[in-house]
Amino acid sequence: MFKQLRENIQCVFDRDPAARTTLEVLTAYPGLHALMAHRLNHWLWQFGLKWIARVLSHGVRWLTGIEIHPGAQIGRRFFIDHGMGVVIGETTVIGDDCTLYHGVTLGGTSWSSGKRHPSLGNDVVVGAGAKILGPVSIGDDVRVGSNAVVLKDVPAGATVVGIPGRIINSTPDEVNARREAMASKIGFDAYGATQDMPDPVVQSINKMLDHMHLVDARVQQIGDAINAMDRAKGQAEIPPLEPCELEAFEEGGAPVKPAQREGKHCPEE
């Protein structure tokens, strides 16, 4: 009992930089109060004193704003930050080292008995206002974004955002490097070098950069094929196609004509 209390206090210090002293954590963190009360209520529930467990959990809900059903199974070092509006259903299973923020619901989608609430793995973080509904499985090290609504299983290590929740796959380093190179080539900055985010503008620009990369590669293939034919016939090869170097706009908004450099095929104006 005291070992679990020490672990729960330490995890508050680890995950909340606002925590200053042990006394502050013990007296001013409703998430800790709700968790310790749940340990007792869950023991009463398993012992068969279900009505007493429900009444006590209702009192804890009134005091802390956190509703945890006595039947829920919660692992070690569980942390609820802020806590107001958190709801954890009866058949919920939560692993070790998980973190929930305010407004989170681990709820059911059915009135039938049996398993109807989520199961969370270890080291899961659920952002403020997120809803995980139904008997879904959330893998280890999953991150659920704020206000997301998760209705399907989530594999380990994934990040879920949006309504309904969708998995955001991390972009490989080589893809980010390719996009950055293409953006630099055309004189564009910012979007090409960023990681994927649930922003339709960013995603659209990244897709455009990918398409431009494919077009450049295909043009290069065509040029190589034509040069091979020209070499066979003794004709001059097609010079490589490179982007124009556009100078900056003058002060006042008047554009400067493209610079004509040796070896560059820029349109004359």
Overview of this protein structure:
38% of the residues lie in helices and 12% in strands. The chain is an alpha/beta fold and 269 residues long. It has helices at 2-15, 22-28, 30-47, 50-64, 173-185, 200-233, and strands at residues 67-68, 73-74, 79-80, 87-88, 93-94, 99-100, 105-107, 119-120, 125-126, 131-133, 137-138, 143-144, 149-150, 159-161, 166-167. It folds into two domains: 2-167, UDP N-Acetylglucosamine Acyltransferase, domain 1 (3 Solenoid); 173-233. Helix 3 (30-47) packs antiparallel against helix 4. The chain has six helices and 15 strands. The longest helix has 34 residues, at 200-233. Mean pLDDT is 79; it is low at 189-196, 245-253 and 255-269.
Please give a handful of descriptors for the protein shown:
single chain, alpha/beta, UDP N-Acetylglucosamine Acyltransferase, domain 1, 2 domains, 6-stranded mixed β-sheet, elongated, disordered C terminus
Question: What would a concise description of this structure say?
Answer:
By secondary structure, the chain is an alpha/beta fold. It has helices at residues 2-15, 22-28, 30-47, 50-64, 173-185, 200-233; strands at 67-68, 73-74, 79-80, 87-88, 93-94, 99-100, 105-107, 119-120, 125-126, 131-133, 137-138, 143-144, 149-150, 159-161, 166-167.
Report the end-to-end length measured between terminal Cα atoms: 81 Å
Query: How are the strands of the largest sheet arranged?
Result: 3-6-9-12-14-15
Please state the structural category: alpha/beta
Rg (CA only): 29 Å
Helix and strand string, N-terminal first?
A: HHHHEEEEEEEEEEEEEEEHH
The count of DSSP E runs of length 2 or more, i.e. the number of strands, is: 15
CATH superfamily name of the largest domain?
Answer: Hexapeptide repeat proteins
Number of helices: 6
- What is the average per-residue confidence, as pLDDT, rounded to a whole number? 79
Architecture of the largest domain, CATH level 2? Answer: 3 Solenoid
Using the coordinates above, name the CATH class of the largest domain.
Mainly Beta
Shape, per Cα inertia axes = elongated
Strand content: 5-15%
Count structural domains.
2
Name the poorly predicted regions: 189-196, 245-253, 255-269
Largest sheet: 6 strands, mixed
Helix content: 25-40%
Indicate the CATH topology of the largest domain: UDP N-Acetylglucosamine Acyltransferase, domain 1
